Amino acid sequence: MPSSQDTYDVIVVGSGGGLVGAYVAASRGLRTLVLEKTDRVGGTVAYSGAGLWFPGAAPIERAGIEDDIENARTYLQDVVADTSRERLQDAYLRAGPRLIEELEENPWFQSFVHGPVPDYYPERPGATASGRTLFPPPLPVAEAGDDFRLVRGSLPTERWGFDEGPVVSGGRALIGRALAAFLETGNGTLRLGTALENLVVEDGRVVGVEAVSEGERVSFRAERGVILAAGGFERDRELRERHQRLTGEWSNGAPGNTGDALRAGIAVGAATDLLDEAWFVPGLVRPDGLPVFHSGTRGGIWVNGAGERFVNETSPYDQAGHAIVRLHATTGVRHIPCHWVFDQRQLDRDGIGFPPAEPLPEEWLASGALKKADTLEQLARLIDVPFGTLDRTVKEFNGYAHTGVDEKFHRGETPWDQMFHHIVGFPADPRQNFPARPEPDWPNPLLLPIDSPPYYAATILPSDIGTKGGLLTDEHARVLDTGGRPIPGLYAAGNTAAAMSGRVYPGAGTPIGSSVAFAYLAVLDLAHPAD
Questions:
Q1: How many C-beta atoms lie closer than 10 Å to residue 483's C-beta?
Q2: Do the beta carbons of residue 478 and residue 301 sit within 8 Å?
C-alpha cells in the first residue's frame, strides 16, 4: 500500500503545457497538485519557442491583422481532412482566444505577441501568410523569482552549455511565468521527482494517482479529476519500436517523456489513436553525435542514398521530417541517414550550427559530423553515394540557381520559404536566429549554386519534438474508453492525448497550443462538468 495520501481538487500529471492548466485551476480556487517526474518543470515546452497557434486571439488583432475564425476553421478542417476530429478542432478554436484573454489578465503573463509565421499549407483554403502564431513575452531572470531555478534549461543549454543570458524567451519564459502565477495563487502545490505509476479508480471513476517519489510509493486523491499532461512516449524505446520502428535516441523531446501517462490511461480502459505518429522534424547531427531540430535550410541540397534530392529542403519541418521517414520506408532507397551537401560559399554565408563568418569549429570535422572534400567525387565516396548521380543532381540544382526557379521541388516559392530570405535558423537553435546576409548575385537567395570548393556534407536524421499519438479524448478533454464513453474523472492534454490535428501540422504552435488549450478545457469541465 502507498505510504501516504493527500487530497486535492485537481491533480495535473506533467509540468509542460499542463502547468498553464494547473494555473487556471488554482486561480479558480481549486486545490491543485502538479506532479513532475524529473527534477525540473517545463518538459518539452521548455525546449520550444512556445508558439501557440491560436486563430482569432487578441494579439493578432492588436498586430493589425484581420483573422476570421471561420477561415481558420475552413483551413484546419481542410488540411486535417478527418471529420472525426472536427469537434476537437472546434473546441480548440474556441478555447485559444479565451485562454489568452484570461492569461493576459494576470500580470505574470503580461501580453502575448503575434509572430508572422505563415501557415504551413499556403495553398489550402483559409490559409494566411500572416500566420496565427502567438509567443509569450521574454522574461528577465532577475524578475522571475527564486522558483525560476526549477525551470528546465533550453535544449542548447542542456546539450552544450549555451548561456542564455539575463533574459529568457520562448518556452522557458512561458513556463517561468506559468510557474510563478501558479504558486502565487496560494492553491498550487508542486512535487518534483514524482513519477506516475497508476491511476486509482473507485466505482468506475478516477479518484487519484499512485506514484513513486525517492523510491517510496505515495498516493494522492483528486476530488474533481486527474489531468494527464505528461508528454508523449518519444523517449521510450519499447513503445517506439512497437509503434514506429524508431528507438527514441534521436528525439528532441524532454528526457522524462517515456509514456507513463499513456500506459496508466490504457490500464484503466482508455482508447488510443495515432500511436504510429510523431511531430517529426529533420535533425542535424552535431559533434556530440546526436541530432538537433533543424529548420530553415537556405542553401545546399539534401540527398538520399542514391545521391538524389527528394524534398524541398526549406519546407516546414514536419513535412520534411515526415518525408524522410516515409520515403525510407517505401522507396527501397536509403533516406536514413540523408546528407546535406553544400559548399564553402554557403558555409561562409549561413554557417551550420554556428553563426556565419565565424571559423569552422574544429570539433565538427574531428567528430565526423561534417565531412569535407576538395571535389564532389571525393565527397560522394565519403558519404557513400554514387558520384555520377550526385554530380547530375548538383548540376541540375545549379541550373535552378541561375534561373531562380526550383523546377523539381519549388524551393523559395511559399510564404514559409520566403521567410528565410531574411533570417537563418528560425525557429530551431536560438544561436542561429540572426539576420541573413544578402545575396545580390542570385535571383533566389534560397538557391545558390554548389560550385565553390571545398565541399561539405552534414548528416540529417529523422528527429521529433514529441510523439503525437495518445489517449483518445473528446471536446472537453475527457479521456474516452474503448466504447467511446468518457472515463469519469480522467482528462488528457498535449502529447499524452491523440492530436486534434491528426497526421498534419497546420501551423507553428499547434503542439504547444493543443497542450495548453485542452488543459484549459479540462479545467473548465472540472469546474463545471458537462453532461
A1: 7
A2: no
E strand or H helix that includes residue 95: helix 86-103
> CB within 8 A of 262, min separation 6: which ones?
232, 233, 239, 272, 470, 471, 496
Phi then psi for residue 477, to 5 deg, are: 70, 15
State the amino acid at position 36 in one-letter form. Answer: E
The whole-number pLDDT of residue 246 equals 87
Peptide bond into 255 cis (omega under 30): no
Distance CA 448, CA 311 (A): 16
Per-residue pLDDT at 1: 36
Which stretches does DSSP call E strand in 192-337? 194-202, 205-213, 216-228, 272-273, 278-285, 291-293, 301-303
Residue 437: per-residue pLDDT: 55
C-alpha grid cell, residue 249: 535516441
Residue with cell 559548399: 343
User: Between 248 and 311, where is the model more confident?
Assistant: 311
Residues 6+ apart with CB under 8 A from 488: 204, 205, 206
Half-sphere exposure of 502 (CA within 13 A, CB side): 16
Contact 15, 36 (CB under 8 A): yes
Segments in 404-440 forming alpha helices (H): 415-419
Q: What is the largest CA-CA distance in the chain?
A: 73
Residue 431 has pLDDT above 50, yes or no: no
Does the global pTM surpass 0.90? yes
Tell me the C-alpha distance between 323 and 326, whole Å: 5
DSSP tag of 497: B
First to last CA, the chain: 34
More confident residue, 454 or 438: 454
State the pLDDT at residue 169: 96
Mean pLDDT of the chain: 94
Among 96, 2, 10, 6, smallest CA distance to 58 is for 96
- C-beta separation of 502 from 279 below 8 A: no
Answer for the pair 232, 470: CB distance below 8 angstroms, yes or no. Answer: yes
User: Mean pLDDT, to the nearest integer, of 137-153?
Assistant: 96
Q: How far apart are CA 199 and CA 408, in angstroms?
A: 52
Q: How far apart are CA 14 and CA 228, in angstroms?
A: 7
Which grid coordinates belong to 302? 539534401
Residue 44 — pLDDT band, cuts 50, 70, 90? very high
Instruction: Name the grid cell of 366.
Output: 574531428
Q: What is the pLDDT of residue 528?
A: 87
Q: How far is CA 253 from CA 232, 258, 461, in A?
A: 8, 10, 15
SS (H, E, C) 112-128: CEEECCCCCCCCCCCCC
Over the stretch 310-353, which tens digit does the pLDDT of each residue have? Answer: 999 999 999 999 999 999 999 999 999 999 999 999 998 888 86
- Predicted local distance difference test score (pLDDT) of residue 66: 92
112 to 61, 134, 419: CA distances (angstroms): 12, 6, 21
Q: Are 250 and 281 in contact (CB under 8 A)?
A: no
Please state, in angstroms and rounded to a whole number, the distance separating the CA atoms of residues 40 and 365. 34
404 within 8 A of 443, measured Cβ to Cβ: yes
